[in-house]
Write a structure and sequence with these properties.
Layout (H helix, E strand, L loop, with lengths): L1 E2 L3 H17 L5 E5 L1 H5 L2 E6 L7 H7 L1 H17 L4 E5 L2 H13 L3 E5 L4 H4 L2 H9 L2 E4 L2 H9 L4 E3 L3 H8 L5 H7 L7 E6 L4 H22 L1 E7 L6 H6 L5 E5 L2 H7 L2 E5 L2 H8 L4 E5 L3 H10 L7 H6 L6 E3 L5 H12 L2 H17 L5 H13 L4
Parallel strand pairs: 1-2, 1-4, 2-3, 4-5, 5-6, 6-7, 8-9, 8-11, 9-10, 11-12, 12-13
Helix pairs in contact: 1-19, 11-17
Length: 374
């Protein structure tokens, strides 16, 4: 069984599934995934679209459904005699259901670990008891877990292989495919992969982007996550003046001039492609206050956390208003030196993420662990 809860988990899960199938074509996959995992052979009990909860308050509202999902997965594991559970990121749900699987004697492998270094190390003791093997994507995570007695292995970051194996469109192909203006650079908006965050972030980001596009002769392109219906953007803003592009986010990261990007995996991806950008993040006020009390890091953008400095401006909660987004972005768009300086800072990301092959290495360890006595 594999449990992912987000678009990034679906991508990484599908890659690991393909590698596992090469090792043993008889393996069957069950659990929660998205279109990519389903296309790779998963018999999905639930789709990641159904699991897009964001923050403490949203989770509380959906507790009856969440409890039903857990119950269904536990029953499925017994019905199909599943012994190995692979948890991919999504710690709020996965660490909770891990307790239940562990109590039933299941073998638990975690790929893309909970960010214990961001939320404090109290969870590590529980992880040490439950998780058979922890597969981490940053070198410093392996050290943290090993020092706490967790069997952790650094496999590299799957972003590297996805980027290296990606078949990029040329600028001419992308512009032609989506009828973009050949005379204008792209101002990229990436407002998230969950409905709640898009509703909070898109309106203000778009208003700022329209000012920036007019002032700097840019065209606005909104990157739509594959699990999101494009209508959500027109429901929020009927205004014209922007194009929606779905399924070509890496091409946009590579070709855009500047980005306004929601905090999350996408900030690391944008940084990998050295796209200058500002980070925006808005959540429920209570969720934010709880998170602020628990957080052990000063930055929220993964790119900044990995670099150990604020290379990319972060606009959070009330700070993510259209005026601040406009004013902060304008500083960089007004100065080639400022843009180049941010690109130089972001160029360190690629080096820190290591070499390609994370999915293959993860699959080999998973396969070996699956077949070990437990």
């Amino acid at each position: 069984m594999i449990i992912a809860g987000e678009a990034s988990g679906d991508l990484h899960g599908a890659s690991v599934m393909k590698e596992l199938s090469l090792l043993d074509s008889s393996i069957e996959f069950f659990g929660i995934g998205g279109d990519k995992m389903i296309a790779s052979g998963m018999k999905a009990k639930y789709h990641i679209k159904q699991m897009a909860f964001l923050g403490f308050i949203e989770v509380i509202r959906h507790l009856p459904f969440i409890n039903k999902v857990k119950s269904d997965l536990l029953q499925l594991a017994e019905k199909e005699r599943i012994e190995t559970i692979i948890l991919i990121d999504y710690p709020g749900f996965n660490l909770n259901i891990a307790h239940k699987f562990h109590s039933r004697g299941k073998k638990l492998i975690y790929f893309i670990s909970p960010q214990v270094w961001a939320w404090g190390k109290g969870r590590i003791e529980k992880i040490k008891i439950m998780i058979k093997k922890m597969l981490v994507i940053f070198p410093f995570e392996e050290k943290i877990y090993k020092e706490a007695g967790v069997d952790a292995v650094y496999v590299g970051h799957p972003l590297v292989e996805h980027a290296e194996n990606y078949n990029f469109l040329s600028k001419a192909e992308l512009y032609s495919k989506f009828e973009l203006d050949n005379e204008k650079d792209i101002l990229l908006l990436l407002p998230g992969s969950r409905k709640q965050e898009i509703k909070r972030i898109f309106g203000e980001s778009l208003e700022a982007a329209k000012q920036l596009a007019k002032e700097f002769d840019l065209q606005i392109v909104v990157a739509c996550a594959e699990n999101i219906n494009e209508n959500i953007f027109t429901d929020i803003s009927y205004a014209s003046g922007y194009k929606i592009v779905k399924g070509f986010t890496y091409d946009l990261f590579k070709l855009a001039k500047f980005g306004i990007i929601k905090s999350g995996t996408s900030t690391l991806e944008a940084a990998y492609f050295q796209l200058p950008f500002v980070v925006v993040y808005v959540t429920n006020p209570i969720t934010y206050l709880i998170g602020k009390l628990l957080a052990k890091v000063k930055n929220i953008a993964m790119a900044n956390i990995i670099l150990g400095k604020t290379a990319v401006p972060e606009l959070i909660q009330n700070g993510a208003c259209k005026e601040n987004i406009y004013n902060t972005s304008r500083v960089y768009l007004s100065s080639k030196e400022s843009l180049d300086e941010m690109k130089r800072a972001l160029s360190e990301i690629k080096q820190k993420l290591g070499s390609s092959g994370a999915s293959k290495r993860a699959a080999e360890i998973i396969f070996k662990t699956m077949n070990e006595a437990y």
